[in-house]
């Protein structure tokens, strides 16, 4: 069973990568990429990842993508019970956000839970307040989270057997840069350091004007 799950995760990751490569090829061929010199990789494009959503924030309010992504945002999918990867990734994102603020750019870190059963608004609020004061935490129903993940072409899997409530959730770990008027413009892998991420994001913001 574990082997089949791992194969499915690898296949899902490969599918996302192939789609992004094709997207880059199309964008480059048509000369329509205003951010070409800012990119960390050759697998990105603008506006084809993401989309409208309605979720619940860490204060229990219903919000939409227009509310949350009103300014430049770094979006990450994870869960608060994650033992190591999510804390490290979100701390890196928070560090990049602080570095960007020193450059004169205000960027909002956003955390979308892929574990809505455990990540209630109250749990999210404690998590986001600890990571960064401007971080927005989002949760929702299982169907709402699945729809957002599909729109962002990301993979996650909550185990069917949750046992005594202590379980791990498989998920991808890229961080998405979303800009007003452009939508998705780039993603950053988890092995990128905060300073490089900040420099890359600043390049996109300067180009966006």
What can you tell me about this protein's structure?
This protein has six helices and nine strands. It has a seven-stranded mixed β-sheet, with helices on both faces. The protein has a two-stranded antiparallel sheet with strand order 6-7. Helix 3 packs across helix 6. The termini are far apart.
Number of strands: 9
Classify the fold: give the CATH topology: Glutaredoxin
What is the total number of structural domains?
Answer: 1
Contiguous runs where pLDDT drops below 50 for at least 5 residues: 1-30
Task: Give the N-terminus to C-terminus distance in angstroms.
Answer: 50 Å
Main sheet attributes: strand count, strand direction, barrel closure: 7 strands, mixed
Mean pLDDT: 86
Q: Nutshell version of this structure?
A:
The chain has 209 residues and is α+β, with helices and mostly antiparallel strands.
Keywords summarizing the entry:
6 helices; globular; two-stranded antiparallel sheet; disordered N terminus; seven-stranded mixed β-sheet; 209 residues; Glutaredoxin; alpha+beta
Give a topology summary:
Elements: H1 2-29, E1 54-57, E2 62-64, H2 65-68, E3 73-78, H3 85-102, E4 108-113, H4 121-131, E5 136-139, H5 142-151, E6 156-157, E7 170-171, E8 175-179, E9 183-188, H6 194-208
Parallel strand pairs: 3-4, 4-5
Antiparallel strand pairs: 1-2, 1-5, 3-8, 6-7, 8-9
